[in-house]
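Before a colleague's protein record goes any further, I have to sign it off. I want your independent view on whether this chain really folds as the tokens say. The record follows directly below this note.
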Amino acid sequence: MTAAATDAHVGSKGTQKVAPGPILLLGAPGVGKGTQAKELMAKWGIPQISTGDLLRYHRDHATPLGQQAKETMAAGKLVPDELVTRMVAERLKQPDTAAGYILDGFPRTLNQAEWLDRHLAADAKTLPVIAVSIQVGYTQLLRRITGRRSCPVCGTIYNICLQPPRVDEKCDLDGTPLVRRSDDTEEVFQERMRAYETQTAPVVEHYRARGRFEEVNGDQPVEKVAVDVMTAVARLRG
């Protein structure tokens, strides 16, 4: 990271000098968006806003929006954009979003991205969304997903390809046989990749066309990816 980029977003005590604003982290399944979101939350003191979390909150608290979502899901239908955007709009009113936030799972479609731009543009003091895509090659992603194992007792996560246990398929801590999630298969991964590419391609082009998009190499140590994401944010906000 250059000195200019560092000064653009990190103060003398490692805190944010300028508000990072709304940040959309993009990336295929397995690139590490969740890990990077936690890194940025810790460094910048901004929240992560997940549509999955919002749906669960409204459902569990039986809010009017949650009741509508529950009825839709019970009927086997997807929650419509109109309902999701109302949840997001309500969340963005909370004071912890003033300096910025990390979007997770939203906007997932072009319609959602266009709605978000209009919603934020209604307040002249609000920064527009910038999008940073974490890039990892297909083969590496496949190894991350299909090699994933966990201990059913202590919850420790391993990867038999990248971070194997000392004894094959057994937990280092308690010797329990490791388990594999039923959806950590190549077939399911391929389906998720196709869905991601179909949905996300228009979103990427939306932000790229507006000069609010950058890519970073996700096949690096977590700390280096975080630095590259922050540098990208500094450039896009510059």
